[in-house]
Amino acid sequence: MECALDAQSLISISLRKIHSSRTQRGGIKLHKNLLVSYVLRNARQLYLSERYAELYRRQQQQQQQQPPHHQHQHLAYAAPGMPASAADFGPLQLGGGGDAEAREPAARHQLHQLHQLHQLHLQQQLHQHQHPAPRGCAAAAAAGAPAGGAGALSELPGCAALQPPHGAPHRGQPLEPLQPGPAPLPLPLPPPAALCPRDPRTPAACSAPSAPPGAAPPAAAASPPASPAPASSPGFYRGAYPAPSDFGLHCSSQTTVLDLDTHVVTTVENGYLHQDCCASAHCPCCGQGAPGPGLSSAAGCKRKYYPGQEEEEDDEEDAGELGAEPPGGAPFAPCKRARFEDFCPDSSPDASNISNLISIFGSGFSGLVSRQPDSSEQPPPLNGQLCAKQALASLGAWTRAIVAF
Amino acid sequence: MYSKLHENNLNFPFRAGGGNDIQWCFSQVKGAVDDDVAEADIISTVEFNHSGELLATGDKGGRVVIFQQEQENKIQSHSRGEYNVYSTFQSHEPEFDYLKSLEIEEKINKIRWLPQKNAAQFLLSTNDKTIKLWKISERDKRPEGYNLKEEDGRYRDPTTVTTLRVPVFRPMDLMVEASPRRIFANAHTYHINSISINSDYETYLSADDLRINLWHLEITDRSFNIVDIKPANMEELTEVITAAEFHPNSCNTFVYSSSKGTIRLCDMRASALCDRHSKLFEEPEDPSNRSFFSEIISSISDVKFSHSGRYMMTRDYLSVKIWDLNMENRPVETYQVHEYLRSKLCSLYENDCIFDKFECCWNGSDSVVMTGSYNNFFRMFDRNTKRDITLEASRENNKPRTVLKPRKVCASGKRKKDEISVDSLDFNKKILHTAWHPKENIIAVATTNNLYIFQDKVN
């Protein structure tokens, strides 16, 4: 059937519908939102396959040009079971950013990531047939196009959650790979939207709320991970997250976050976050109050696992600066989520409704529901302070997102 | 044998094997004339009672209006009796759930009549959360001649009473009173979409998005949960219940439809919780019709058993399907309501029309089915002759006994005279609710805020 709208517009329209359903009289309509999530899933599938085809074409062109070692490095780097793509995202390059050279490997890497994403997607589809969970899938697909959806879709496809197979926590399995951003697109930075349309099970502390990266991930494959800094216009980019069930195991997660402003990608090591979380005595998962702003991620941020990092001086610098600025939101995500779940046991039907929506928009929302960044905590490590600032700076976006839900 | 045929033919001119098709005539229209529709006046449900004498409507403002058919001398009348307002009452009020910070709409989702057992009439009306049993009774006599009260109600000074008399009942102007006899509340977490009275006339079911509860009409403080499709993890939700109905004859059987286009028939004798269906009715999807919106348009918006109980009818966005209860793998009949909309699904999704929930209904003899469409059109399908007709509910033909002219929508290409092109359809004028008199060819069709009554032409 011919559709007058392309996948991107459909996705943004769908998100708008979900958003507005919140304000309608009578409460959230489960049926309608479920149907909308199906449309989201379908649109996302189409979008993914289009992107894949496009990147494949690019790769065909660039195949011979690039030395392969970059790619290997990235692959080697990837956490066990994690798709290379998850760790591979280089800094965002908006519009004219990045040099052409960097773009090529980027394209190839993106393709690789996308390929892996696709694999996972197919895997997931298979699982879904047995244990259909389109909602989650769609939820994932519900990329956080900002309410108002400026069609900055790049985030969506990736976000499309590849939920782990039904019921199976994913340790060591690739989880939601990062969104395979389209190749550097000349898209404007999406309006701040801090909506993270991520898979609901994104407990990774470091996952910052992702706003649709205007020009998705791209760039130099070699770019080091950047700490996600929420900034006032949240250019977050969520990485893969462990399943929520993993969360209990010390946030074992590897999250990659991308700061759209600084174009630096950061990957946070397993377990690190939780330690920090707990150490800060503010980790909700420990039943405490609001987690310190991005403390853990601060430390985590420092670990720049990008093999290509050494080669990218700029990025390293950036990373260095930002290493201390964990995203206000990222480290909180898993903790927040846990907390939210504490708040609202599944038995509460309304929580179910909310959790559905949160599923759609990613666990970033759970953070929104349950916490405010607390800037007045005990002296956190330097990183934490910066994180706090970042968090506060991003508060506007959070607030907007809170307003949305 | 002959007399039985004859009797049937009096009421159902849709004669098998030919004969004149019925001609529908305008009879009445109820409701405000302005184009500016107050939201509270939007009709949300229409239902005839078991005899057809009463016609109830519910609206978004929580009100129920009941019309009664005039009793006329049928042999001499030119048309069947007119429907006039019989009773109006506020059934549900808007509520606020403080715990969840949710407003509960007062919109009446469904009305179902109980069969009449005595002089009073009873109906069930429901909004999203609460079902109420209303008693509608007439009062046409009142006691007069009290000893201690004057006729106007003032009390008399006892010292002035010198004689005693026995009060007597004297006729008075008819007064129709509606009083809530039972309130069935707090049993539904999600939004109630259906209620259905069992053929035992003692119990009824209520269905929301994820659960179906069984009630006894006399007991309000508890209900049995008989279907629960809520997944342990709400993120795994894939379908919801969209409609449910008891079988008209078997008090142990009911069906429920889902947003995935399936219908499950359950037998309450099998187990207390009927999560496992006895029969699953599902038609495989046609892959050539796959689109972004496949899931939406396959969602069933209404399910209705035939009067005989042998068939059931389902309505999804584009079609009406008749299922034989004995065959699960596909419907026995499929009627396209407005196939020309298939290429417009995108726009219909944008303007939310694709989520409209159309209802459908059978005529008394199960030979014709009817459902609504856009532009105030409604469609009828004759199962025997396989003919269908499109009619319009509009005030333009509002002279009584004006025969309605069939309409035609031109899907594409050259538009013939009198045809309407798809692009000029008014998607704000939708007919979601229709009802057919149980015994006669009288239909009630609800546009946004008006109720039209059509009858067949009586010569």
Automatic annotation (TrEMBL), chain A:
Annotated source species: Macaca mulatta (Rhesus macaque)
Low complexity biased stretches: 217-232
One Pfam family matching this protein: IER
Coiled-coil stretches: none
Name of this chain's protein: Immediate early response 5 like
Family, similarity comment: Belongs to the IER family.
Region described as Disordered: spans on this chain: 86-107, 160-232, 307-328
Domain of life: Eukaryota
InterPro entries: IER
Biased composition (Acidic residues): 309-320
Pro residues composition bias: residue spans: 177-194
TrEMBL record, chain B:
Gene Ontology cellular-component terms listed: glutamatergic synapse; protein phosphatase type 2A complex
Domain of life per record: Eukaryota
The keyword rRNA-binding appears for this protein: no
Record bears the keyword Membrane: no
GO molecular function: enzyme-substrate adaptor activity; protein phosphatase regulator activity
GO biological processes: regulation of chromosome segregation; response to morphine
Keywords tagged on the record: Repeat, WD repeat
Annotated family: Belongs to the phosphatase 2A regulatory subunit B family.
Protein name, entry field: Serine/threonine-protein phosphatase 2A 55 kDa regulatory subunit B
